Amino acid sequence: MPSFVALLKISGRVEGAKQRLQKLPERWLGCTTEKVIFGTGGYDAVVVFVAPDIVEANQYIDKYLRDSDPLTMIDTVTGESIRPA
């Protein structure tokens, strides 16, 4: 399964956004949240997750990350699987 990286900007209450991101579900549908990193690469937060395909990845993004105050989606990156086959 491919891994996805969501690059986020936090506007407004940073602590509220951090708490929300730390409570992302470990599993949702076919997606698995791998890690959340704060303050790296010029972004406020980076979320790494695994999804079976782009459709489920977009559903995960829409439900938990996309433009939901105080988070703003900057970009997503798709990569190779981060799990051994």
Strand order of the largest sheet: 2-3-4-1-5
Percent of residues in beta strands: 35-45%
In the CATH hierarchy, the architecture is: 2-Layer Sandwich
* DSSP summary, beta strand count: 5
On the 0 to 100 scale, the average pLDDT is 80
Fraction of residues in helix: 10-25%
Low-confidence stretches: none
The main β sheet shows up as: 5 strands, antiparallel
Describe what you observe in this structure.
The chain is α+β, with helices and mostly antiparallel strands and 85 residues long. It has a single domain (3-78), classed as Alpha-Beta Plaits (2-Layer Sandwich), CATH 3.30.70. 24% of the residues lie in helices and 44% in strands. It contains 2 helices and 5 strands, in the order βαβββαβ. The protein has helices spanning 14-22, 54-64, and strands at residues 3-10, 27-28, 31-40, 43-50, 71-79. A 5-stranded antiparallel β-sheet has the order 2-3-4-1-5, covered by helices on one side. The longest helix is centred in the last third of the chain and has 11 residues, at 54-64.
Write the layout of secondary structure elements.
Blueprint (H helix, E strand, L loop, with lengths): L2 E8 L3 H9 L4 E2 L2 E10 L2 E8 L3 H11 L6 E9 L6
Antiparallel strand pairs: 1-4, 1-5, 2-3, 3-4
Compact description:
This protein has 85 residues and is of the alpha+beta class. The protein has helices at residues 14-22, 54-64; strands spanning 3-10, 27-28, 31-40, 43-50, 71-79.
Task: List the keywords.
44% strand, 2 helices, single chain, alpha+beta, 5-stranded antiparallel beta sheet, 85 residues, globular
